[in-house]
């Protein structure tokens, strides 16, 4: 027939309504078909076998199901419960069709999950009004669900992108540890906290010894690999959650140790120096050691309102250069 289709309900506003009738008697289908023949936006599909109703509904996507109450193989109440229990059909509106006008039968239909109940055979105007009403509210619900899902998906995507952006802004591209920007933020925050609580802050700045010679010997790519190893080793050594290890410049790193006094910071610095030398990364052209080594500056400050974090950085930088001047592979305070 011309108004029969297999298209599924998509929630598209231009999509016609799809009425699916489940009834054991073909003449009922013929009568209904005639009642709907002039409704160009209402498609009609007849399913005689109630045991096929759920799979047919899955295939054609009805916007409303007209369900015969009395059928021999499976009665309308049972089928209604099946449709309600099935994940892809459970929200489709169901109008129960029965020749019975008894209130108890009607109540049983609603209890089984029907949305409406009409006595056979209803007047065309009333039937069309009911079919439009149920189909319309179902389609707008699908549209709302789709819109909501799309909105949530874009929100989640945006959150992911923001997280990635935040990560990229704070992480050093080569080593994957914190970058200078992140370090500066952490230092400013910890500086203020230490000022408030009158607690010490320690900084360790370290620089690879004779790294230019390492690059000259092995090439820049191996140099990069070496920097990664050093960064990860430093991160392993500095393990308290409040501590921050950052790549400060080319082959220069910095460590922030909040709530740490001078003796604590010196212990961490010495451990860093030893662990890195003990990696035994060959550096044949170094005059300091057969292996890659670092020099470290260490400083501990009790922040004062008259001072700034920059002062701290200057002091630790000077300490690092003293370590270089006094022979490298050592720390200086
Ligand atoms: P010193 O012991 O005095 O620090 O000697 P040095 O050779 O390490 O010092 P210098 O400042 O002369 O050289 C630093 C070298 O670090 C030069 C540069 O090629 C290298 N370097 C800086 N950043 C990177 C990097 O991202 N990758 C590689 N492979 N090398 C880098
Ligand atoms: Mg029947
Ligand atoms: Mg160096
Ligand atoms: Mg340097």
Kindly describe this structure.
The chain is an alpha/beta fold. The chain has helices at 26-36, 53-60, 76-85, 103-111, 124-170, 180-197, 211-218, 220-237, 262-277, 309-325, and strands spanning 17-22, 42-47, 64-68, 94-98, 116-119, 201-208, 244-247, 252-258, 294-301, 331-332. It has 10 helices and 10 strands. Helix 7 packs across helix 8 and helix 8 packs across helix 9 (262-277). The N and C termini lie far apart (93 Å). Mean pLDDT is 93; it is low at 1-14. The structure holds 3'-deoxy-guanosine-5'-triphosphate and magnesium ion (MG) (3 copies). Residues 23-25, 68, 70-71 line the site of one magnesium ion.
Q: Share of helix among residues?
A: 40-55%
Largest sheet: 5 strands, parallel
Rg over CA atoms, rounded to whole Å, is 38 Å
Low-confidence stretches: 1-14
Structural class, from secondary structure content? alpha/beta
Strand content: 15-25%
How many angstroms separate the termini?
Answer: 93 Å
- The string of secondary-structure elements, in order, is EHEHEHEHEHHEHHEEHEHE
Name the hetero compounds present. Answer: 3'-deoxy-guanosine-5'-triphosphate, magnesium ion
Mean of residue pLDDT values: 93
GO molecular function: diguanylate cyclase activity
Keywords: Phosphoprotein
EC number: 2.7.7.65
Protein name: diguanylate cyclase
């Amino acid at each position: 027939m011309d108004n029969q289709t297999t298209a599924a309900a998509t929630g598209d506003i231009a999509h016609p309504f799809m009425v699916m009738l489940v009834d054991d008697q073909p003449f009922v289908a013929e009568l209904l078909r005639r009642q709907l023949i002039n409704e160009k936006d209402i498609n009609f599909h007849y399913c005689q076998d109630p045991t096929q109703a759920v799979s047919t509904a899955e295939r054609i996507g009805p916007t409303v199901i007209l369900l015969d109450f009395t059928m021999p193989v499976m009665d309308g109440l049972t089928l209604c419960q099946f449709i309600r229990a099935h994940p892809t059909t459970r929200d489709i509106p169901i109008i129960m069709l029965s020749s019975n006008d008894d209130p108890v039968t009607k109540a049983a239909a609603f209890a089984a999950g029907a949305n409406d109940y009409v006595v056979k055979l209803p007047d065309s105007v009333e039937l069309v009004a009911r079919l439009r009403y149920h189909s319309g509210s179902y389609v707008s619900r699908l549209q709302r669900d789709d819109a909501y899902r799309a909105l949530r998906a874009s929100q989640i995507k945006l959150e992911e992108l923001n997280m990635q952006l935040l990560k990229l802004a704070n992480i050093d591209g080569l080593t994957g540890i914190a970058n200078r920007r992140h370090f500066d933020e952490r230092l400013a925050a910890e500086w203020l906290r230490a000022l408030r609580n009158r607690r010490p802050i320690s900084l360790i700045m370290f620089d690879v010894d004779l790294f230019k010679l390492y690059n000259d010997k092995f090439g820049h790519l191996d140099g990069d690999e070496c920097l990664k190893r050093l960064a990860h080793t430093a991160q392993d050594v500095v393990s308290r959650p409040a501590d921050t290890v950052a790549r400060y410049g080319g082959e220069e790193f910095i460590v922030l140790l909040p709530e740490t006094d001078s003796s604590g910071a010196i212990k961490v610095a010495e451990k860093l120096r030893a662990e890195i030398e003990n990696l035994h990364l060959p550096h044949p052209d170094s005059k300091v050691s057969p292996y890659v080594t670092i020099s470290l500056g260490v400083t501990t400050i009790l922040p004062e309102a008259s001072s700034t974090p920059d002062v701290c950085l200057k002091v630790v930088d000077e300490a690092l250069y003293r370590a270089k001047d006094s022979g490298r592979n050592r720390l200086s305070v």
